[in-house]
Input
Amino acid sequence: MKIDRVHFYVENAQASRDWFINQLGFQSVASSEDWHTCTEVVNNGAVCFVLSSPLNITSPVAKFLNQHPPGVADIAFSVDDVENAIALASFGGAKVLENVQIDTANGSKWAKISAWGSLTHTLVEKVEKKSIFSPSSFTGIDHVVLNVEAGELDPAVAWYQDTLGFQAKQAFKIQTERSALHSQVMVSPNNQVQFPINQPASPNSQIQEFLDANKGAGIQHIALETANIISAIAQFRRCGVAFLPVPPSYYTQLQQRPGLPLRVAELAEIAEHEILVDWQPTVPQAILLQTFTQPIFSQPTFFLEIIERRQQARGFGEGNFRALFEAIEREQLKRGSLQDF
Output
């Protein structure tokens, strides 16, 4: 199993297409329109995003946007045997929205199940073809994060275990002076899909702000993996992408951590582009570099993470959790959604 594509429901598919092209270097690869929905498809390397917007009130996108702001509506997983996958998901309690169908254009098979909240998952069995990727910024989707309501973390974890065979891995509890969250990382049976699930652990948590703005559970962010984050972020900033600011004090503290595995010049570049750094003392050469965009839609909901894993670095930047949390809290204070004590 791996992530095949992500489907966004947006207000204007062509405008969103242009944003991904102009800001993040995606390419337009397909477009279609029927009597109720306009759809654009963009990709960047191994990353494929589908963008749909309504043409009238009968569109399923219009129904979604009546309940939620723009965001992720469906995450498609490629599977070896879609009949078996849908049978196991149904046996595990998933509601089947569309039974197995065959795409006559390419011979692939697919089916769709209802997931958590308004999210759905399409299961796709593709005819094996050699993939040819053009030069790109991204090597793939590193992970996808789902936010759920307080008290729903354990049921959501159980749902992904029962329906898709995901396994629980790391668990985190993150807290600052102002707010807190709990997180459980889920991983597909073949370890190709990483799927953390968060719930708020305080009334004014950033997760609660997302849930309020999104009007329920939903995908908070997608992490896009790159082979050279310094070069990528420099290019994205030139194209106008807004990222969460990181205070200079973060890099002062970073230099005080034992075993900092970066040269002085490289650390200066990383600080210039406000990139977060993490590593494990036992494997210092395995460095995780990450940064986060501002929300890409008008509401404080969905954002993107850009991540580089050197020497197959693992984890999710646990050493940066507090710094990230505090960076988002500073943005919450600007929006007036978090009280400063």
